[in-house]
């Protein structure tokens, strides 16, 4: 072996070592699940990333209905277009006789939330799409994940953070958002839903399946379905794989997204 070959070989080993070290340096989530029984009530607090495609929480309901037959479940979505967490008055969302006071079932039958029962057991919160990694707004992300987590716990519920996805034309945001949300989750002892990582994994495995609408930020129906599958698998500890509900995407597309969701949750949370 020539001197030049030896030098190139050493350089390759060093480069591989650096790459591996960088991958291992990604913060790992400390909280793996909610603990205890599956939640019976969830509030989703966020923005248009949640409410696109007739709102993600409605799709979550369909997953729970099929995958956990007999489990009583209700959820509510509170969203503000373009909002960050600092726009939301989470204290008000837990006010007695406020949001979640009643719900509709069957043929528009009104069911009142029994007095003394928790309004919500889990609060899933998402910041604006770039707030956690924006130089100007990242401090507010740290401040309000802490503040809202304390508020949620004061009302006997568990905070959960929803890791959003990168813009279609800015894939580098994936790792940045994952790191920001994971650190926030660990700092506030909160579970994190790794939707952003699932987007990246789906794109890698099936790049022809578009998870975005024309603005390259908001989710297509496939994107919302994937986010739903990740949310279901994370919150309820149940596999999304095998769900018959496909939101009209077709069985093949749904099966791909279900598998990506389960694999991502398993890898991220170490389940």
From TrEMBL:
<dbReference type="InterPro" id="IPR036514">
    <property type="entry name" value="SGNH_hydro_sf"/>
</dbReference>
<keyword id="KW-0732">Signal</keyword>
<protein>
    <recommendedName>
        <fullName>SGNH/GDSL hydrolase family protein</fullName>
    </recommendedName>
</protein>
<dbReference type="GO" id="GO:0016788">
    <property type="term" value="F:hydrolase activity, acting on ester bonds"/>
</dbReference>
<feature type="signal peptide">
    <location>
        <begin position="1"/>
        <end position="25"/>
    </location>
</feature>
